[in-house]
Amino acid sequence: MPPENPTSDTIGVLKSIWKKNEAGLWVGHDLKGLDLKPREGFSKDYFKLESEVSLLTKMPGPVMNNFFATFGTTEFLLRQSIVPVVAWNDGDEEIRCIGTGFFISASGLLMTAAHVLRDPVDENYTSLTRVDTNAHLFDEKLHFGILLPGNPAMRNAPFDVHPIVREAKWFMCPFEWAYHWGREVESPLLHKKPEYKSEVDIAICKVREQPVIGPYQPLNIGLYNLKIGDRAVAIGYPEMRNIRLGGGDDYQPELVVSVGSVTTVHPDNMSEKKNATPGPNFEFSAKIPGKMSGSPILVGNGIITKGVVSRSLGSQDNHASGCLIAPVMYLPLLGDKSLLDLMKTGNEGIANMIGSGL
């Protein structure tokens, strides 16, 4: 459902809240809109968030036991869905913050830009071994994951809380697997290695479930088109620094909201190749600094995430590209099931949003 009394200046995100029923299946529990307001001193087109406290649901039930994800400031609640993507090798002293990602299912399916996952190869801190025509393995010392913030409200909570949840500043949640679409192109020059070419700059990752944390909190996706002139809102983590391991690093990345509008749409870019962003994509007028690659792009009134930030374009401050999510939902994943198949089965906790104005 659209937010009540929307205005042209209102920026919001519709959050869906999930729980498991008695049969162990994911079911939607509630919907709640969050208004995104600029912190004092920021413009309405590029801003950090004003701190307001919200409870995502007033409905009783098991989900209320998970205050970790349903109660807190606007920033904290958004950071349950939009997360830093990190990578590290065994023995490293730091975790590398390499981009932004966002949950698309309560079970832990996450979407980011494909080139974010190529960072360890591009920056030469891992090796890649080909194991099949379309499959490669990173060095076994390399790990990917995401960071979830601890909830400061839990530290003095007057009810029973798991000690880990009560004291944690943030949680490291590793990937089980990651999937993106592309191929290696052999060079005619014998001394050159094959070059990897993405077919679409979107990756789907599976974050390991964490019983202490409970359900992940997804954004909504769907088979909805966008058009030139639509408002495009990207939310992510610009210019993150690395995080020291071993304790004592209290660094908390902050979200930034970047607002623009859709200027061009390239739905057939896989064949026509009208711009350098791989796959079906669109261009939009918003400021996109480094590390915002992989961020969700909410188009229109904030109900549906329709794009993934790919890159800034040229030297212009407000010109970027995003990959379209809808075409990717038909592509086969592991086991040949697509995102659309997983949405229809209902076993992953992906909202099937239906209605006009999406």
The tally of strands reads 20
CATH topology: Thrombin, subunit H
Order of helices and strands: EEEEHEHEEEHHEEEHEEEEEHEEEEHH
Mean pLDDT comes to: 85
Largest sheet: 6 strands, antiparallel, barrel
Distance between the termini: 9 Å
CATH class: Mainly Beta
Helix coverage percent? 10-25%
- From the alpha carbons, calculate the radius of gyration and give it in angstroms: 20 Å
What is the count of helical runs?
8
Low-confidence sequence ranges? 1-7
Which class do the helix and strand fractions yield? Answer: mainly beta
Report on this model:
This protein is mostly beta strands and 358 residues long. It has a single domain, classed as Thrombin, subunit H (Beta Barrel). 11% of the residues lie in helices and 38% in strands. It has helices at residues 67-70, 74-79, 114-117, 119-122, 163-167, 269-272, 325-328, 339-345; strands at 12-20, 26-35, 46-47, 53-55, 71-73, 82-89, 94-103, 109-112, 128-132, 135-138, 142-149, 170-185, 195-207, 231-236, 243-244, 256-266, 281-284, 296-299, 305-312, 320-324. The strands form five sheets. A six-stranded antiparallel beta barrel has the order 14-16-17-20-19-18. It has a six-stranded antiparallel beta barrel with strand order 6-7-8-13-12-11. A two-stranded antiparallel sheet has the order 1-2. Mean pLDDT is 85; it is low at 1-7.
Helix-strand blueprint:
Elements: E1 12-20, E2 26-35, E3 46-47, E4 53-55, H1 67-70, E5 71-73, H2 74-79, E6 82-89, E7 94-103, E8 109-112, H3 114-117, H4 119-122, E9 128-132, E10 135-138, E11 142-149, H5 163-167, E12 170-185, E13 195-207, E14 231-236, E15 243-244, E16 256-266, H6 269-272, E17 281-284, E18 296-299, E19 305-312, E20 320-324, H7 325-328, H8 339-345
